[in-house]
Amino acid sequence: MVLGWDQSAEAWLTVMGSTGDFSRFGVLDAPMLKRVVSSGAQTVLDVGCGEGRFCRIMSEHVPLVTGLDPTRKLLDQARLLGGATYVEGHAEALPFDDGSFHCVVSYLSLIDIPDAKAALGEMSRVLKPGGRLLIANLASWNTASQTRDGGWDRLDDGAVRITVDRYLEEHAFPAEWDGISIENWHRPLSFYMQALLGLGLELRFFDEPAAVDPAHPYGSKMNKAPYLIMMEWQKPQPEETA
Ligand SMILES: C[S@@+](CC[C@H](N)C(=O)[O-])C[C@H]1O[C@@H](n2cnc3c(N)ncnc32)[C@H](O)[C@@H]1O
Q: Could you tell me if residue 106 is inside a domain?
């Protein structure tokens, strides 16, 4: 039985420290920030902002950053360190008006959100026409491999392989490391693509970012297998009426 985010918050703060873990400082931070900055967004909402680390990074470039998260202890830390306005809430029912933001960011939060379809609908709703939805997520191949031993199997010859299972089935699985004990969600890539296409959003950018330093022990492991994805979707402008 997983403990959940409230009881994992202290361990999360320890694991993240001030730099975040390798997936963040070693892979995602730089390309995510580049997309936010190049969009020219003046207002950004970070859904599932946790302790606000990426909000603080964005706030050096964006005038108005808002972070939203349901976990009170993470929000307490975010508010202590500043950089943004922090709001308690769930992605599935965002407490903002339609068209409030130029850019909405979901940075490794979709895997934690039970109703991702509702959450994506809400993220699209609060975007201004022409605004961008920027997503970083664990690759679906990766979340389908979490069923045993983190998905890595060591073979007799010492080689490591990932075993993928139940790929097409949406399912929750326990994610437990360094005192963190939470539920994550696996969904096939088609789930996310179809949900986003169904909202009428247009894909502008897609990447499977590599580790900045491939010689780093985590970097070499990550670059062996599908690990992280990034995508940016644009909300179209309403049709001009004649
Ligand atoms: C893996 S952490 C990512 C935090 C931060 N974005 C980062 O990358 O460091 C996932 C976050 O999602 C939040 N979360 C869990 N359920 C959520 C929901 N229904 N709506 C929004 N955020 C949620 C958790 O509280 C946690 O802060």
A: yes
Strands (E), the chain: 43-47, 64-69, 85-88, 101-107, 127-138, 152-154, 160-162, 171-177, 180-186, 202-207, 228-234
* Residue 154 neighbours by CB distance under 10 Å: 10
Cβ(49)–Cβ(27) below 8 Å: no
Residues with CB under 6 A from ligand 1: 5, 20, 47-50, 53-54, 69-71, 74, 90-92, 107-109, 112-113
**Residue-level pLDDT at 209:** 96
Compute the distance from residue 49 Cα to the ligand 1 centre, in Å.
Answer: 6
Mean of the per-residue pLDDT values of the chain: 93
pTM above 0.90, yes or no: yes
- For 86-105, letters b (16+ CB in 10 Å) and e give beeebbbebebeeebbbbbb
**Ligand 1: nearest atom to the Cα of 119:** 20
What's the CATH code of the domain at 99? 3.40.50.150
Q: Which two three-digit tokens encode residue 4?
A: 């959940």
Total domains, the chain: 1
Domain that holds residue 96: 5-139+186-234
Q: How far is CA 167 from CA 133, 152, 153, 221, in A?
A: 25, 16, 17, 21
| DSSP category for residue 150 | G
Q: Half-sphere exposure of residue 44, counting CA atoms within 13 Å on the CB side?
A: 34
In a domain, 116, yes or no: yes
Does a structural domain hold residue 17?
yes
